[in-house]
Design brief:
Elements lengths: L6 H8 L8 E3 L13 H5 L18 E2 L12 E8 L11 E3 L2 E6 L3 E6 L5 E6 L17 E3 L2 E5 L4 E6 L5 E6 L14 E3 L2 E5 L10 E6 L5 E6 L29 E3 L4 E5 L20 E5 L6 E6 L15 E7 L2 E9 L4 E7 L4 E8 L6 E4 L6 E3 L10 E4 L13 E2 L6 E6 L2 E6 L20 E4 L7 E7 L4 E8 L8 E4 L3 E4 L6 E6 L5 E6 L9 E5 L2 E8 L3 H11 L14 E7 L2
Parallel strand pairs: 2-33
Antiparallel strand pairs: 1-7, 3-39, 4-5, 5-6, 6-7, 8-9, 9-10, 10-11, 12-13, 13-14, 14-15, 16-17, 17-18, 18-19, 20-21, 21-22, 22-23, 24-25, 26-29, 27-28, 28-31, 29-30, 31-32, 33-34, 34-35, 35-36, 37-38, 38-39
Length: 579
């Protein structure tokens, strides 16, 4: 929950006129030639495809295609578009497997398209319950395995679809949406296991990561992010706080195929004020290293303890091999919501702290302990009960869930950051009611403030993760930056994320803006790149909503000349070079 809107306003914005049958709509018909997805293909994906959330298990968000490059990107033009038929935040990357595109949209919809022409094959529409209420009615994509697709739904089911027809193969309930549990992530598929994590931390739930058999939907294991009695880390909670401790795991994890380890990000503790759940509160605001065979926690790193700012750290760290101080470090790189750019080292038994520095201004941290990597809190900027406390950055952090990217050519990390935002609230002890928001403050007490004299808000940053130096930065004067980044071997960085509806390409080495295209709405989703018959394409969903719109609404109240109106409505845009 990231807004000062009322519950009724959330309900209206989150449930906009799209409740329809779970069926296959009329289209061009079944897909005749579909390439089954194997473990080998996921571990070593063809450059022409985009079959995982960030294309590869390491989460780098990098395409090795280079037909579109710094010299010709000015000739990029739309080759087809496709309206999704729904509004709200479109956050999923277009997934492409040998010429077939699968797009997940808000309201439980999956569309299968010819990735070259935009012609529809089939469309799945899920029946969503009339009483469904959640804060983020969106989807971040479908997972692929063999001849099926896997969708995690906002009414808390995992659904397997036949990739050729869109027909339901199995449908498994994960938890109870009436208790505030829901899902928005793309399932991570590893060796026939469909792995998901739940949303709903603001409803006082207990977070988890769970795996299901891709063949029949049977649950194989479930690991709670909040340790129960007798489990390691349980002593970091007091009393029964752990039972409703939050720790949602609502973004897709990354995977080290060499060590067979999943790295999964975990969200904030519940409710927000830390004094209402004393202790470090493992494993909230952490990254977990999980064994995919059984879900066992191998090790972890907690980015910040006793979270009190709603700073989820759910974006999984990127797996990057770095040369630092004369040695090769198998690193985990994570520009955090807590405003710290984290560089960690992953080993089979431990995650080591390497370095960390603020990538936007913050008054919450006095520093980081050099040995443990534990941030040192300034108590004057830590929310508490009965007193309004202000802090920078805001609830949305230095970077929210939109993903950073790493270029294997430049060695730089590209961060969709937000600067000059602050927030605050007054902590309040409120009773927990299943299925209702449980924030530890009143929604109307939450706001977003801009720093006096600020000349910009969004920043696309380029960092060298080895030296800790910022190489370049592009500022957005009248908008936050709320969209994921993709880098390509053409020395380009693609990103949307602004309220002017533009999709942009930057020079990955210098930060020079090389190309932009106005779209129908604001862009929250992540770009993907693929190739068919020798032509490279760039694809993106345009569709503003959810937190991007909530930030926009909050900015409009700051009297800084920004209006709240950004047109909504989802459209898939696909670009290629002019012939």
């Amino acid at each position: 929950m990231k807004t000062s809107m009322t519950r009724k306003q959330w309900l209206l914005s989150g449930f906009v006129a799209f409740t329809c049958l779970a069926s296959t709509a009329a289209g061009a018909g079944p897909i005749e030639n579909y390439s089954p997805v194997t473990a080998q293909r996921l571990e070593n994906p063809e450059p022409s495809n985009w079959m995982l959330y960030r294309r590869t298990y390491d989460g780098q968000g990098y395409s090795p295609l280079d037909q579109i490059n710094t010299s010709n990107v000015k000739n990029l033009t739309p080759v087809w578009t496709f309206a999704t038929g729904v509004v709200e935040g479109h956050e999923a990357p277009p997934i492409v497997n040998n010429g077939v595109m699968f797009v997940a949209t808000p309201m439980g919809q999956v569309i299968a398209l010819n990735a070259k022409t935009g012609d529809e094959y089939w469309r799945y529409k899920r029946q969503l319950p009339d009483d469904l209420f959640q804060l983020h009615p969106t989807s971040r994509g479908v997972g692929l395995w063999e001849d099926k697709l896997y969708l995690a739904t906002t009414d808390d089911h995992v659904v397997a679809l036949d990739a050729k027809t869109g027909k339901v193969v199995w449908d498994t309930k994960v938890q109870d949406y009436k208790k505030g549990q829901y899902m928005t992530l793309m399932p991570l598929i590893i060796d026939g296991k469909v792995i998901v994590g739940g949303s709903g931390g603001e409803f006082g739930v207990r977070g988890y990561v769970a795996a299901y058999d891709a063949k029949d939907g049977k649950e194989l294991w479930r690991t709670y992010t909040i340790p129960g009695e007798g489990e390691p880390g349980h002593d970091t909670w007091q009393g029964d706080d752990w039972k409703n401790g939050g720790g949602s795991a609502w973004m897709t994890g990354n995977y080290d195929k060499e060590t067979k380890t999943i790295y999964w990000g975990v969200g904030n503790a519940a409710p927000w004020p830390g004094e209402m759940h004393p202790g470090d509160n493992l494993y909230t605001s952490s990254v977990l290293a999980l064994d995919p065979s059984n879900g066992k926690i191998k090790t972890y790193h907690q980015y910040h303890q006793n979270d009190s700012w709603d700073w989820d750290e759910v974006e999984a760290p990127m797996l990057i091999d770095l040369q630092r101080n004369g040695r090769n470090i198998k690193s985990l790189v994570h520009p955090g919501r807590d405003a710290i750019f984290w560089v960690l080292e992953r080993t089979p038994t431990k995650i080591n702290y390497v370095a960390g520095w603020p990538f936007v201004s913050t008054d919450v941290w006095k520093g980081i302990d050099a040995e443990s990597g534990r941030p040192i809190v300034d108590p004057d900027h830590k929310p508490t009960v009965g007193k309004r406390v202000e802090f920078c950055p805001s609830l949305w952090g230095g970077k929210d869930w939109p993903s950073a990217a790493y270029s294997q050519k430049t060695g730089l990390v590209y961060v969709p950051a937000n600067e000059n935002f602050c927030g605050g609230f007054t902590g309040e002890k409120l009773p927990l009611k299943p299925g209702e928001l449980w924030l530890g403050t009143k929604p109307e007490d939450i706001g977003l403030k801009t720093k006096p004299g600020a000349d910009h808000f969004g920043e696309l940053q380029a960092w060298d993760p080895v030296t800790g130096k910022k190489v370049w930065q592009h500022n957005f004067p009248k908008s936050q930056l709320f969209g994921s980044v993709t880098a390509t071997a053409g020395d380009l960085v693609f990103v949307g994320g602004t309220n002017d509806r533009n999709f942009r390409a930057f020079n990955a080495k210098t930060g020079e803006l090389l190309w932009e295209q106005k779209t129908n709405s604001g862009i929250m989703g992540m770009p993907s790149s693929y190739e068919i018959d020798g032509t490279q394409y760039i694809a993106i969903q345009s569709g503003w909503g959810v937190d991007a719109q909530r930030i926009q609404d909050a900015l409009a109240t700051n009297n800084i000349g920004i209006e709240s109106n950004v047109p909504q409505g989802g459209v898939i845009w696909v670009f290629a070079l002019k012939k």
